[in-house]
Write a structure and sequence with these properties.
By secondary structure, the chain is an alpha/beta fold. It is built from 14 helices and 22 strands. The chain has a five-stranded parallel beta sheet with strand order 7-3-2-11-18, sandwiched between helices.
Length: 504
């Protein structure tokens, strides 16, 4: 049986912007994380917040709702945008250094879907790295946050309440119990062959919560970033939304702009419209490029993009940059309210692994870091008010005690199928083919922790995509290209019920 360590404070799973924001807000906290970097470190665009002259949280909320496909919850959106200015103030107080003008005022960027300049940035296109630097330094200074390194592979329950986590180090298993568990495990882009997400972003937190009985929501809504650098890298380097905000445009193989044929906003269209247009251009046999050569002082203003392009022999000042859509952000996840409470006692969720209704069917650019900051602070308050030491027998999924961790080549087959059949443009036949092929891979995938989790998540995404027979936000069905008013609601997936075993 696994060794058990009983913690006397909440346990936060994940050390990105959401997890660290929760941890710093708790009276005391343990954070469990892996050495691999999550998505926050890679975030380029910035943090959307109504801090500029003439802007307001109400305007920010209106823009957020406008791109949400009619599914965002007004309360969640208002909570998100009203918390923006205070979130920026907290980061500045922690030592975050954002780009400022000569007068010392924040330099605000404008991105697609935003009606005002409200995107706060650091070093042009390295906002995520600066946010993580500030949060990690705050954690190191903190006397109330303890960081534990480990690989969480499942949740542990006591009766109907989540009571801790099961971790793995090779074949060794260990259990940490805690009076509350917060899932802050990030997104799920790695189930796709083309993604901007780093290797650690596998969506495992979502399926762990599902196995523990948590309700899951809106898994069909996946955002594909339209401008990932198409140069044979995995993950695909992101070419930030800010480039188009500063005048860059999409062009075809003949260097002709084409977005006006697909959307009235042209290159400033919402992400999902841009991604589909690029997909269709490739389907017609035409490559697509981002032309950013008109941007003044490009190297100084966008050093991260410059480094990515230079690494494949391209200079953005001189060359067109080949682009392709890539899986970027999952709007769905663990169903949670604006305080992070899930459908299972003892379990909270925050950040990209949670689905609060703040994004609906499509996320407004630069609202993701904001979500981790704003909801992270709220979750901390809720968790501190809901602590309960676990009592009684501890149970966890039986197969998690013995399976090896790392998946073999079959997981790459799954990723390719997901990209080919469950990507930017979907059909019933393609989704059915994806399901059949992945089920054929099931016996091999189920031999490892990583393979089992990818299998379960992929099948849930396919099921959700099949059920939604319309097109809305990040979910586009070529066989149902229009939105159906009768389906203008969030969709839940029933929890999974694995065999469990008593472990303590």
């Amino acid at each position: 049986m696994p060794e058990i360590t009983r913690l006397d404070a909440p346990l936060v799973v994940g050390a990105g912007v959401a997890g660290l924001s929760v941890s710093l807000g708790l009276r005391r906290a343990y954070v469990i994380s892996t050495p691999e970097m999550g998505s926050t470190w890679w975030a380029q665009g910035g943090i959307a917040a109504a801090v500029g002259s003439g802007d307001s949280p109400e305007d920010h909320a209106r823009d957020t709702l406008a791109v949400s496909g009619g599914l965002a919850l007004a309360e969640a959106v208002e909570t998100l945008t009203e918390g923006g200015p205070e979130a920026i103030e907290r980061l500045v107080a922690l030592g975050a250094e954002f780009d400022r003008d000569e007068e010392g005022e924040l330099q605000l960027g404008k991105e697609g879907g935003h009606g005002a300049r409200r995107v706060v940035r650091a070093d042009g296109d390295a906002t995520g790295a600066e946010v993580m630097r500030a949060l990690n330094e705050a954690v190191r200074r903190s006397e109330t946050v303890t960081v534990v390194e480990g690989r969480v592979i499942d949740l542990v329950k006591s009766g109907t309440r989540v009571a801790g986590v099961l971790t793995a180090d090779g074949k060794e298993r260990h259990i940490y119990t805690a009076p509350a568990v917060v899932m802050a495990t990030g997104g799920a882009g790695r189930i796709y062959a083309k993604t901007t997400n780093p290797p650690a972003v596998t969506g495992e937190g979502v399926v762990m919560a599902g196995r523990a009985g948590a309700r899951l929501a809106d898994l069909e809504f996946f955002q594909f970033h339209p401008t990932a650098l198409h140069a044979g890298k995995d993950p695909m380097p992101l070419l930030t939304e800010a480039l188009r905000g500063e005048g860059a445009g999409l062009v075809d193989a003949q260097n002709r702009r084409f977005m006006d044929r697909y959307h009235p906003l042209g290159d400033q269209a919402p992400r999902e419209a841009l991604a589909r247009a690029i997909f269709w251009q490739y389907d017609r046999g035409s490559s697509v490029y981002l032309d950013a050569r008109s941007i003044i002082n490009f190297h100084e203003r966008f050093p991260t993009v410059t480094a990515h392009a230079m690494s494949v022999g391209l200079d953005p000042v001189e060359h067109l940059l080949p682009v392709l859509p890539a899986a970027h952000y999952c709007m769905g996840g663990i169903d949670a309210d604006t305080c992070g409470r899930t459908s299972v006692q003892g379990l909270w969720a925050v950040g990209e692994c949670a689905s609060t209704g703040a994004h609906g069917a499509n996320r407004l650019s630069s609202n993701s870091l904001l979500e981790g900051l704003v909801f992270g602070a709220r979750v901390a308050v809720s968790v501190d008010a809901g602590l309960e030491d676990p009592t009684g027998e501890l149970e966890t999924p039986k197969e998690s005690l013995d399976l090896p961790l790392v998946a073999g080549p079959a997981i790459e087959d799954l990723r390719r199928v997901m990209w080919d059949r469950v990507g930017v443009v979907r059909t019933a036949s393609g989704l059915g083919e994806a399901r059949s092929t992945i089920l054929e891979l099931s016996p091999v995938l189920r031999r490892t922790i990583a393979g089992r989790n990818a299998l379960e998540l992929a099948l849930l995404v396919i099921l959700a995509a099949l059920r939604r027979t319309e097109s809305r936000g990040g979910h586009y069905r070529a066989d149902y290209p229009d939105a159906d008013p009768t389906q203008a609601h969030r969709a839940m997936v029933q929890p999974m019920t694995p065999d469990t075993v008593v472990v303590g």
